[in-house]
Amino acid sequence: MAKTLRSYIIITFVVCCVSFAILVTSISTTSWVTAKLIGLGDAKYEINYGLFLGTLTDEFFLTPKLYTIELACITSENVCAWSCKPTADERQQDVNLLYYDVEEAIDGCGVSALSKSHLGRMREEWDDTTEPSSSSTVDTIEYKPDKRFVNLGVWGATCTSLVISIILSGIGAVGAVVNTAANPVHTIAAVPGLYLWNGLAAFFGTLALILWGSLYAAILRENVAVHQTITGECKGISSLGFSF
User: Which stretches are transmembrane (predicted)?
Assistant: First the structure.
């Protein structure tokens, strides 16, 4: 049967290879979520992150400073957040403070950090002098802690679904090559198996989109779960990037 469907199998091979490449690019790049944040005083940040790594650009200085951000989680609370701290221990401590004692989590990134008293004074000055405008990227300027985090379960399920989809796409591509060269005896390795592998790959890929899309709509659109948005230093509306 495979011989009579050779042209369709070749098309299937191409589709599997393209899907595999897209999925690998998606999971390995850092543009799942992008955002421009504005904050107290002249604070401005640009955020880009993927499922594991990202970048935070501090535009307060004449020469913008670029930081790498990584996800740190509190497994017992099922929450994660992005931190620009240089070591894993510091990132974990940062997220612990953000979750358990957000008023003390005021270090930010490097030299652009705000001291607690300085942050309080800037908030008061901002409230006294700033009026929201229709052109602002923020619907309501209200700088106070916003303790919304990345859901660890949803993030983990998204990553797992993508990995499974990548594996199944690879199996589908190999199966297409086998069916082009021969007529496998076992059903799972023959043309019906191609339907199975590709169908499951499409299912798990779609599931990943639904999971991350739901997380974005519920939380990440208004709070990208970085130090600056959780503490209330900055706000901004994010968008989904090309990796998604």
Answer: 6-27, 152-174, 194-219
Q: What is the pLDDT of residues 54-76, one digit of tens each?
A: 988 887 777 778 888 889 899 99
Rounded to two decimals, what is the model's pTM?
Answer: 0.76
Q: How many helices (H) and strands (E) does the chain have?
A: 6, 8
Residues 7, 9, 13, 14, Cα dihedral to 10°:
30
Q: How far is CA 191 from CA 7, 21, 187, in A?
A: 12, 22, 7
Q: Are 200 and 168 in contact (CB under 8 A)?
A: yes
Candidates 97, 108, 102; CA nearest to 56 is 108
